[in-house]
Amino acid sequence: MSDLSKLCIHSVTTKPWGLREAATKYAAAGVSGISVWQDAVAAYGEGHKATGDMIRGEGLDVACYVRGGFFTALDGSDRLKAIDENKRIIDEAAELGAPLVVLVCGATPGQSLFESRKQIAEGIEASLSHAEVAGIKLGIEPLHPMYADSRSAVNTMTQSNAICEEIGHANLGITVDVFHTWWDDRLEAELKIAGEKGRIFSFHICDWKNLPEDMLNDRGIMGEGVINVSQIRRWVHDAGFSGYEEVEIFSNKYWAMDQGEYLGKIIEAYQALS
Ligand code: ZN
Predict the structure, then answer these.
(1) Separation of CA 246 and ligand 1 centre (Å)
(2) How many CB atoms lie within 10 A of CB 31?
(3) How far is the CA of 144 from the centre of ligand 1 (A)?
(4) Chain CA centroid to CA 87, Å
(5) Domains (ranges, CATH) in the chain?
(6) Residue 1: pLDDT over 70
(7) Separation of 213 CA from ligand 1 center, angstroms?
(8) Which of 6, 58, 73, 147 could form a disulfide bond with 23, CB atoms 3.0-4.6 angstroms apart?
């Protein structure tokens, strides 16, 4: 049985709710944190600082700002633009009062994944001093290889650890998402390595449904699919991570239902984790 002191929910999980409604409803249900997506801040319309203040006023922590990255491009000038964009996102996170920006690193059709990974490392490296000055951490989120075409050339914990090792900066670490990493037979060992280096920065949970109907928007609630979320959570804890457990679910099915009822299901599933 899990208490709710480590439970955080991504604003996109209950997309039909605006940020204020999400913050109010999460807090009333006993949820402790919220991870804030850029589009939700834009829709709230008050700017980043006021958004962070509103959320904290509701009694919630802002766990992270989602998302930066997309460092890859065929053209060098586009890669420079991406670095500028990431610096802007880092500034927004600082205004919001979020300690961490999650990086979806990018991949570009027309160039190899090796080339994309090289560009990702260069882009991250070029953004890190800005992040350090702003007091913001950057978390590389390896994505499931089904997204290697155009979303991320970083697909495993092994690759994420390698980039962190190569760059070697205290503000750079990893965001572990069960949806993206559950299939990997290196997962437990790489979590251990990341833990020893103090670079597990955040942890995302949901489930992989048996035969999802959509590559993006058919994620399941924990316990609904094939991922042993409790086991991965134990590995993450054993590796020394004690931060928020962030529920991040994109689901056309759940977005169509009553969001209050859905929030109840999420909390019930979270409490059932062993
Ligand atoms: Zn995630």
Answers:
(1) 8
(2) 25
(3) 10
(4) 18
(5) 7-271 (3.20.20.150)
(6) no
(7) 19
(8) 58
The two tokens of residue 8 are 């955080």
d(Cα 94, Cα 96) in Å, to the nearest integer? 5
Cα torsion through 164, 165, 167, 168, rounded to 10: 100
List b or e across 119-143, with b for residues whose CB sees 16 or more CB atoms inside 10 angstroms.
Answer: bbbebbbbbbebbbebebbbbbbbb
Q: Rounded to whole angstroms, how far apart are CA atoms 171 and 155?
A: 20
pLDDT confidence of residue 259: 98
- In this prediction, residue 2 carries a pLDDT of 64
What pLDDT digit, counting tens, does each position of 218-262 carry? 999 999 999 999 999 999 999 999 999 999 999 999 999 999 999
Neighbours of ion ligand 1 (CB under 5 A): 177, 204, 248
* Residue 269 · residue 227 · CB < 8 Å: no
Look at residue 225 in the predicted model and tell me its pLDDT: 98
CA of 126 to the centre of ligand 1 (A): 23
